[in-house]
Design goal:
The structure holds two protein chains of two kinds.
Chain A lengths: L1 H17 L9 H12 L19 E4 L3 H4 L19 H10 L2 H12 L10 H33 L2 E6 L2 E6 L8 E5 L7 E7 L5 E5 L1 H4 L4 E5 L10 H6 L3 E4 L11 E5 L2 E5 L4 E2 L4 E3 L3 E8 L5 H4 L10 H31 L22 H15 L6 H19 L15 E2 L13 E4 L6 E12 L2 E3 L5 H10 L6 H4 L5 E3 L2 E3 L15 H13 L4 E3 L8 E3 L3 H12 L2 E6 L3 E7 L7 E12 L7 E7 L5 E7 L1 H6 L6 H16 L2 E11 L1 H16 L4 H12 L4 E12 L3 H10 L3 E5 L4 H10 L8 E5 L4 H9 L2 H29 L5 E6 H7 L2 H13 L2 E5 L3 H14 L4 E5 L5 H6 L2 E5 L6 H5 L2 E3 L4 H40 L11 H11 L2 H9 L5 H6 L5 H4 L6 H27 L11 H23 L5 H23 L13 H6 L2 H28 L3 H8 L20 H11 L15 H11 L7 H21 L1
Parallel strand pairs in A: 15-29, 15-33, 29-32, 30-31, 31-32, 33-34, 34-35
Antiparallel strand pairs in A: 1-8, 2-3, 2-4, 4-13, 5-11, 5-13, 6-7, 6-12, 8-9, 9-10, 14-35, 16-17, 16-28, 18-19, 20-21, 22-23, 23-24, 24-25, 25-26, 26-27, 27-28
Helix pairs in contact in A: 1-6, 4-6, 5-6, 6-12, 6-31, 10-11, 10-30, 12-30, 12-32, 15-16, 19-20, 21-30, 23-24, 24-25, 24-26, 30-32, 30-35, 30-36, 32-37, 35-36, 35-39, 36-37, 36-39
Chain B lengths: L2 H27 L3 E5 L13 H6 L6 E7 L8 E7 L7 H4 L4 H6 L13 E2 L2 E2 L5 H4 L5 E6 L2 E3 L1 E2 L6 H7 L30 H7 L7 E8 L8 E7 L11 E6 L9 H27 L11 H7 L1
Antiparallel strand pairs in B: 1-11, 2-10, 3-9, 3-11, 4-5, 6-7, 6-10, 8-9
Helix pairs in contact in B: 1-8
The chains are: A alpha+beta, B alpha+beta.
């Protein structure tokens, strides 16, 4: 049940992003406000908005008293997100349709064709237009129906409402303002509620706001003490509070109001408000009063209108349509001038003497010209493919609904999440993406740190193999067995710990050559941290609350090695140590924590001074390898050297490393230092700096214990996916809020960067900038940073060019941090930035704010005019997702913000391969084919009319019967092209992925260039001439065997037959894969034409129009030359196309054609193992490949990365929420917790 | 579309089209056709400079006798056509100026579609409209020496037109009574469905040069025979410089003389054969290995 509602909420809230604000609640001003802020990209990507201007009135709600509330007439709790109602559907839907230029154009043509200047009956344009409108309206109705059903399922979800003295289940829509409701754990709040009481003793409850802002951490709400006892229904029914509060508004984080109970006025803060869309966690149930319902809830008032994106292909299509308009205009001008010249009284049979209507009046040739212009516009209107847009829409819609959403390859079984196309107008854009901007956490990585390896005393422990090592080994041809089967019995995989080495598990380290180092190693892990244990104090049940997942992983590792940290008091750390004295012995040891020297990005280390129970003073330190190595005591070079090697090894395997060291302190040493420390801590000016300086005094002469390697667990298949995407010519940029080390580390792990890559790093962490910062003048700091950015950009750009010339195959990477990026995005430097980043294969931007992510995306989008894609999972990616051409949200996780803003939602990063390389590419190819084909078929058809115009004295006489013309687009040639749009595939999905290079055809836009269109245009021209003149010439002197001559309608029927047959056959020729659907639809279309003409020429009613084609086809079919022409014209028409296609394929084959040929005979291509492209490595590629295979001993990268507690506060401070966690906070919290526990025990 | 496949397709097209073309040509060649332009010759010398005056003057006899020599043996039935050139029967103003309803159901269906010749003197015209009004009215008779040759003028229109488009009880009314006489007149006692000249004329032609069936001669004409054609040159094509010709032709299964189809087939067929040979040669000389990965763009790029 709860999962069902969750799903419903997911859909409902996901829609918030997609649809315009529904009717009801929202005022006009509110809507304008919402769209304005949405456009700004919402700095933090959150829904935080300026509050609306307050309505002057105050809402007064009488709790638990429906009668009292009745006079006000609050809106019910049912929501409707539908666009239309039964009544408004037709007018509103039609209005929406006519906002499209093509439809409006055809409406105008239809109106024009009711006037006498039209050569065609209105039916010619009205029928296709109404069919197109009908299809569009059906689609709209269908979508709206789905929305309606969604609304219904949400409105009918049940919640417990207080009735009398009992809880009774009622659907959400029955809720009214003032009702008292009970919400159970893990269910959603049905409306905005005032929190009254909770089953938790101190009136708190935990809520999750992921649906609102994407933040997955639990938030605490606390009820007013006055209402705590409402938890039982008897009490709740007695509660008769009166709430006076503000009118509904869209501000999620503000609330003003008072609760008046027992003549006492208590102010209500946002802390007592539970918003619709959030869910209750860790609380059995709560009781609350309804304050805002339905569309008046804050989340509904926040429904934002995501700016709809149009694909680049469609924009280019607009240009094509414009070109068609230009052609149309030219044709009309030629015809109109001709008519002006032609018209003459001498053609007496035209009756031009005396009073003649303006259009044919030879006395005023100018008016004739102008009016004929309009005549011809109506006649040639078919040049604009009316059904193109609706066909494309249908194709894309089905592509999304049937292919993308149903692709099993993109279905994530664990989270039960299929891919979801949230808009259907960007499918083909997926086939042309050149730049991918990816978020790191949650997208590339799982934000799961696992202790993976370690090096103790010069010995590596941990036998796991990282993804990147696997990839490397596979490239080297070494087959690696999946490790699942051969893991040893001691292997443990739990949260934060994924380690397998029998040598040190379960106390086995005692038998290792250096057990003492092991003890120190584990103690360091168990003591030197700021982690807070929670839950039961057993190794199985305990959970560690850490500011960074790295720390939790380290502590978890210590636990697994037998040093179980289980309790923290303000001054001590309690560790249950096993096997230390002897195997099997367990003892609880309390280490007194004397000082915590906190972690920050300058120090890159963290130390703890502790006192052992026996009084021994030890400083434990963990930190980046370079800072630790600087501070090591002399001697012991061997272990330093091997440790460094190990660090590099870990680093290149994509692991995050930390060095551990300790130092024994004498009492005197410590005390003299501690004085300075206390002094520094209590100093008022420059305290942080002074603390750092003091720390330097004691963090020296350290003894290296070893190092740890934590795997920042990548999402499944990420390196392989990235490799495939790069092979496809897609450049991947990582934009992350993380620190530079972390970001680089992930870049290594994702094989975006390797040791052969030349890195250009621009960072604000340089000495010059630090110096400037120390001086503290903000203007000066800005100038220094700007100068250094400018300088390094310029020199890097030169260097990059040089490197490109000297060693062309070399990979370049550009790494920049957010602060420098801010200056680099300055218009003056932007060109250099763009230049440099476009040269580099990979770009990593770290510590960037959400806004900067968006800026980078639009820099490439607008500056380089490349097609961009953004992928992210969190609220901070929203602006980036909206800024790029295509936005992709990672779904299936808790936060929905990114998905709500995205165009496509997938569950895993690796599904990008399928989405882009398979679906995107196919969509692109299909759409190109559909568009060019539409262009061709309408041009061909219209040009035959044009040639006819020349022989009718430019009078604008139509060549074809009205019905032929009106049904041409919608019946006789409609279905096959849709089949192609749906089913055409050049190569299979697996081949698309196997040859990612095929994707480059999309990036280069090979199939929708003016050249391609020109070729189609040329053949349309050629074919139209063939159709018109061949049928005309063939029937010129031809007559039936009884000598009877053919009239105009007979010739045109013949020509039309040829056009329909040829155009349909031409489609078959351009198909890559011909399925029975193709045959069926092509044969069906041709058969439809014949069926139509047979019936049409057989009936003659008194309602017939003029000049009908009665009996034409029967007479035609009694002649031989009809068949001869029908055989000849298509062959000659297609002769050119066939010749062109075969020569092109033969001499200048497209890549996909070569691959088709290569795999023509192997239906099961996966049985082939060899990769043919491997044999075609260029010397450079071969070299870089060889280099990448070399052992990595000269590597510099050691993989230091650590999420310092400061990291979280980075965004938090930007968003104005949250408080940075400091080590002393941890201690304070620990003490508070203890007090609370004591209280509890005392109470009970 | 492998090279082999392309070559085969071209070859197949060639193999089928060349014979069809030959057959068509043969059929077309077996048609004996006499085309005789008479519009200039039938104007008396005195009026050569002002043909319009001649044609408009109803006092001058329009009779005209032309001698035509038959070159080949012509086997009955011989179709007699008149051919007009530069006559835009497909002009929009012309094409729409008719009322199918009136033609079928009679006077009371006269509607505005016939404009500008809908009514005359307040009375509806049957058949109305420009097409009917401009009915072709030259007549032709044939004599061999002094013996007349029968021309069958029945059954020259489409049966479907006669039976379904032109009413059996619709009679011409108020036709050609205006100040301007366009073309032929109609016998008001014969229903429209029997006015075959009108029916033929009203099946508007597609192109400005067109033929219309006049009648059928059921006698053979011998080679080198000279026949006299008795023409009444009534119809005014001089004002707009149109040509008038008389056509006598025999017919085959393909219809009249029409070399176009035969040549088109022949050209297409031989071009196909030529191309298939050319391709075969290229394929043998410089073959592109089928499915050669070296042709992949990324392989080409790296080998450059």
């Amino acid at each position: 049940m709860s999962s069902r509602i969750k799903e419903m909420m997911r859909v409902a809230t996901a829609r918030l992003g997609g649809e315009q604000s529904p009717r009801g609640g929202t005022s006009q001003a509110g809507r304008a406000e919402a769209s304005r802020t949405a456009r700004l990209g919402g700095g933090g990507g959150s829904l935080r908005r300026q509050p609306q201007p307050q309505a002057p009135t105050v809402r007064t709600i009488y709790c638990n008293d429906r009668e009292a509330n009745a006079p006000v007439g609050y809106k019910g709790n049912s929501v409707s997100t539908t666009k239309y109602s039964v009544l408004t559907f037709l007018p509103k839907g039609l209005f929406e349709q006519f906002r499209r230029v093509a439809n409006l154009y055809f409406l105008m043509i239809s109106i024009l064709s009711t006037t006498p200047i039209s050569p065609v009956h209105p039916v010619t344009n009205v029928v296709p237009l109404s069919l197109v409108l009908l299809v569009s309206l059906i689609k709209e109705a269908f979508e709206d129906w789905k929305r309606f059903q969604n609304d219904m399922s949400i409105n009918n979800a049940h919640v417990d409402v207080l009735q009398g003295q009992k809880w009774e289940s009622a659907p959400w829509k029955r809720l009214q303002v003032g009702d008292i409701v009970r919400i159970k754990q893990d269910t959603y709040f049905p409306s905005d509620l005032l929190f009254l009481s909770s089953t938790n003793p101190d009136g708190v409850c935990y809520i999750e706001t992921a649906n609102l802002d994407g933040e997955t951490n639990l938030k605490i709400r606390k009820a007013l003490e006055k209402t705590w006892d409402c938890v039982i229904p008897e009490k709740a029914s007695e509660f008769k509070g009166e709430i006076q509060c503000e009118q509904p508004n869209n501000s999620l984080y503000t609330f003003t109001g008072n609760l008046i109970v027992d003549k006492q006025t208590i102010p209500i803060s946002p802390n007592q408000i539970l918003l619709r869309g959030c869910s209750l966690r860790n609380t059995e149930y709560i009781v609350a009063a309804v304050i805002f319902t339905g569309h008046e809830t804050k989340v509904m008032m926040n429904s934002m209108n995501v700016p709809s994106k149009r694909s680049t292909l469609e924009k280019k299509l607009d240009k094509l349509i414009l070109a068609l308009f230009a052609t149309l205009f030219t044709m009309c001008v030629i015809g109109a001038i001709g008519s002006g010249v032609f018209i003459n009284e001498k053609y007496f049979y035209l009756g031009l003497r005396g009073r003649v209507e303006d259009q044919f009046n030879p006395k005023n040739r100018f008016v004739v010209t102008i009016l004929t212009m309009f005549t011809l516009i109506t006649l040639y209107s078919t040049i604009i493919p009316i059904s193109l847009y609706v066909s494309i829409e249908m194709i894309k819609f089905i592509q999304c609904a049937k292919f993308i959403n149903n692709d099993l390859n993109m279905y994530h079984a664990e989270s039960n999440t299929p891919a979801l196309a949230r808009t259907s107008n960007l499918n083909e854009e997926l086939g042309q993406v050149e730049y991918i901007f990816s978020d790191k956490t949650g997208t590339l990585t799982r934000n799961l740190m696992e202790f993976f390896k370690c090096s103790i005393g010069g010995e590596i422990y941990g036998t796991g193999i990282t993804e990147i090592e696997k990839g490397g080994a596979e490239r080297a041809g070494v087959k690696i067995d999946d490790d699942e089967g051969k893991r040893s019995a001691t292997a443990v995989h739990e949260k934060g710990f994924n380690f397998d080495d029998a040598r040190i598990m379960r106390g086995a380290w005692r038998n290792e050559p250096n057990p003492d180092a092991c003890v120190q190693f584990c103690r360091c892990l168990a003591i030197c941290h700021t982690v807070l244990p929670e839950g039961e104090e057993t190794p199985e049940k305990i959970t560690y609350q850490a500011a960074s997942p790295d720390e939790a992983a380290l502590v978890a590792a210590a636990k697994n090695f037998g040093f179980f940290f289980y309790r923290r008091t303000p001054t001590t750390v309690l560790v249950r140590e096993s096997h230390v004295e002897r195997m099997g012995s367990i003892q609880d040891v309390a280490y007194e924590i004397l000082n915590v020297l906190e972690f920050n990005s300058t120090r890159k280390r963290q130390s703890v001074v502790c006192r052992f129970p026996n009084g021994k003073l030890v400083l434990y330190c963990k930190g980046a390898d370079n800072v630790i190595f600087e501070r090591l005591a002399d001697g012991n070079h061997d272990i330093k050297k091997t440790s460094r090697e190990h660090l590099e090894q870990f680093g290149s395997a994509g692991l995050r490393t930390l060095c551990l060291a300790y130092r024994d302190l004498s009492r005197e040493q410590y005390e003299s230092w501690n004085e300075k420390f206390v002094q520094a801590k209590s100093s008022l000016r420059d305290r942080d700096k002074k603390l750092d300086e003091v720390a330097e005094l004691i963090e020296k002469d350290l003894i290296l214990i070893g190092c740890t390697a934590i795997e920042d667990k990548l999402q499944e298949g990420v390196p392989a996916c990235i490799e495939t995407l790069s092979a496809a010519g897609i450049k991947i940029w990582v934009l992350t809020g993380d620190k530079m080390e972390t970001a680089i580390n992930i870049a290594y792990a994702c094989s975006l960067v390797n040791n052969d890559t030349k890195q250009f790093i621009i960072t604000s962490e340089t000495d010059a900038i630090r110096d400037a910062e120390d001086r503290g003048d903000p203007v000066e700091i800005a100038r220094v940073i700007k100068d250094s950015v400018k300088q390094s950009l310029r020199s890097y750009l030169e260097e990059a060019h040089r490197s490109l010339r000297s060693t062309p195959g070399r990979k370049l990477a550009f790494i920049i941090d957010g602060r420098c990026l801010m200056y680099a995005l300055d218009p003056a430097l932007r060109v250099n930035l763009l230049g440099l980043s476009l040269i580099c294969q990979s770009v990593v931007c770290c510590r960037v704010s959400p806004l900067q992510k968006a800026q980078v995306a639009s820099l490439v989008r607008k500056g380089a005019r490349k097609i961009t894609l953004s992928i992210g999972d969190g609220a901070n990616d929203v602006s980036m997702i909206q800024a790029a051409h295509v936005g992709i949200g990672i779904s299936g996780q808790e936060g929905m913000q990114a998905v709500m803003a995205s165009d496509f939602a997938i569950a895993q990063f690796r599904y990008l391969t399928d989405l882009l390389l398979v679906h995107g590419r196919w969509s692109y190819l299909r759409l190109c084919k559909v568009i060019t084909y539409f262009f061709y078929k309408n041009l061909t058809f219209t040009l035959t009319q044009f040639w006819f115009t020349f022989q009718t004295g430019f009078s604008g006489q139509r060549f074809y019967d009205d019905w032929f013309q009106s049904l041409y687009n919608v019946i006789f040639t409609a279905l096959p092209v849709i089949m192609v749009g749906l089913f055409d595939k050049d190569v299979s999905a697996s081949l698309s992925k196997k040859y990612p290079q095929l994707y480059q055809e999309g990036i280069r836009n090979t199939f929708f260039r003016w050249k391609v269109i020109a070729v189609w245009g040329f053949f349309a021209f050629y074919q139209s001439i063939v159709f018109y003149y061949f049928t005309a010439a063939a029937s010129q002197h031809g007559h039936g065997s009884s000598g009877k001559i053919l009239g105009q309608w007979d010739v045109s029927t013949m020509a039309f037959t040829c056009v329909v047959v040829t155009v349909n056959l031409r489609l078959l020729m351009s198909c890559n894969s011909i399925t029975r659907w193709h045959y069926f639809s092509v044969a069906g279309s041709i058969a439809a034409w014949f069926l139509f003409i047979f019936i049409y020429s057989a009936i003659m009613t008194s309602f017939d129009r003029q000049e009908n084609v009665y009996f034409v086809i029967y007479v035609l079919m009694s002649t031989f030359f009809f068949y001869l022409t029908l055989m000849l014209a298509p062959v000659i028409a297609l002769f050119g196309d066939f010749l062109y296609l075969s020569l092109q394929r033969w001499l200048f084959p497209y890549d996909y054609q070569v691959i088709q040929e290569m795999h023509k005979d192997d239906p099961h291509e996966y049985s082939m193992i060899h990769l043919p492209e491997r044999s075609h490595l260029s010397p450079e590629e071969a070299r870089s490949y060889a280099i990448s295979m070399l052992p990595r001993e000269n590597s510099k990268h050691t993989g230091f990365a650590f999420d310092s507690p400061g990291y979280e506060s980075f965004f938090a401070s930007q968003q104005g929420v949250g408080v940075p966690h400091k080590p002393w906070d941890v201690a304070r919290r620990a003490s508070m917790k203890q007090q609370r526990q004591q209280q509890h025990t005392g109470r009970s | 579309m492998t090279p082999g496949c392309v070559i085969t397709i071209f070859l197949l097209i060639g193999i089928t089209f060349v014979p069809v073309g030959l057959v068509c040509l043969q059929a077309s060649n077996s048609v004996a056709e006499i085309v005789h332009r008479y519009d200039i010759d039938c104007v008396p010398d005195a009026y050569r400079r002002n043909k319009q005056a001649y044609i408009k003057d109803s006092l001058i006899s329009k009779k005209c006798i032309q001698k035509v020599k038959v070159q080949y043996h012509m086997k009955a039935p011989i179709y007699v056509y008149y051919e007009l050139d530069n006559f835009y029967q497909n002009h929009r103003r012309y094409v729409k100026s008719r009322s199918d309803k009136q033609l079928r159901h009679g006077m009371k269906y006269t509607d505005s579609s016939c404009g500008p010749l809908e009514r005359n003197n307040g009375l509806p015209i049957v058949p109305c409209g420009l097409i009917a009004w401009s009915l072709f009215n030259d007549t032709f008779g044939f004599t061999r020496g002094s013996i007349g040759i029968m021309v069958d003028r029945k059954n020259i229109s489409w049966r479907s037109d006669r039976e379904h488009k032109f009413g059996k009880d619709v009679y011409p009314f108020n036709f050609q009574n205006g100040s301007l006489i366009g073309g032929g007149k109609l016998d008001p006692d014969i229903p429209l469905s029997n006015q075959e000249d009108l029916i033929v004329w009203m099946r508007a032609a597609a192109l400005p040069q067109f033929r219309k069936l006049y009648g059928v001669i059921e006698d053979d004409l011998q080679a080198d025979e000279t026949i006299d054609i008795h023409i009444t040159n009534n119809y005014n094509t001089y004002s707009f410089g149109g040509k008038k010709s008389l056509v006598l032709t025999t017919s085959t299964w393909l219809g009249g003389k029409n070399d176009f189809l035969g040549y088109a087939y022949l050209v297409t067929g031989s071009a196909s054969i030529f191309l298939s040979i050319l391709f075969a040669l290229i394929h043998v000389k410089i073959p592109r290995p089928h499915g050669d990965a070296a042709y992949l763009s990324w392989s080409r790029k790296s080998s450059n």
